[in-house]
Amino acid sequence: MPEVLLVDDEAMIRTLVRNAIKVAVPGAAVIEADCGDKALRLAASHVRFELVVTDIVMPGMDGLDLAGKLAADGHASRFVFMSGYADPERLQTRLAAFPCFAFLPKPFDIPRLIQTIRSMTGDGSGRPEPVRKAAVRRPHQRAEFRVDWNRVSPLDRDFRRVAGLNARTNEICAGLNSAFASQAGWIRRIAANIGAIRAVQRRLPARSVTISA
After folding, report:
1. Quick count: other Cβ atoms within 10 Å of Cβ 16?
2. Nearest in space to 88 (alpha carbons), one of 137, 131, 134, 132
3. Is the pTM of this model over 0.85?
4. Which of 1, 2, 98, 23 is CA-nearest to residue 54?
5. Helix (H) or strand (E) segment spanning residue 79
6. Each residue's pLDDT tens digit, 131-145
7. Residue 189: enclosing H or E segment and its boundaries?
8. What's the alpha-carbon Rg for the chain, to the nearest Å?
């Protein structure tokens, strides 16, 4: 029975990806962890994973450091990296250390996730086909497989909803950061003007006022 290691700090995402793995690789045992340290502890009791599906940005150890340790210890050689924050262009140097990998930017749909997992695990029977480096670097390449849409559609809908909420939250945070930055700029301008006014006031001669009855 093939074993797939799934690592993500969000429980909802793990549930969706776990179900997608079950569709892509029938009979696979999915080992789950919510952080890199726990994944390494689980890996110590397993000889080798057929595939590792991991988020990149996580508290503590990130997904790329985790993958490097798993590869160095011989626990895995095929990886699917997911992230809604990491830029693959900036990660090229670190990703180049893995001969067989795929990168999925969040949000992504469930059929694409299933397609990527199947391309990384062959026919899902536990006997993976040889994967060339070029093929793995193009996860969007079409593959011939059949999808049970009765199972995939609800997962796809839920995943899109969660991903959409995450994207909207990121937009709101970005807007707040922009507003705070703009507000800080105005505060600095006001403070500078007040400082200039006080400097001028200090240079003005003091006037005495006499009041006669």
Report:
1. 22
2. 137
3. no
4. 98
5. strand 78-83
6. 333 333 344 443 333
7. helix 149-203
8. 27
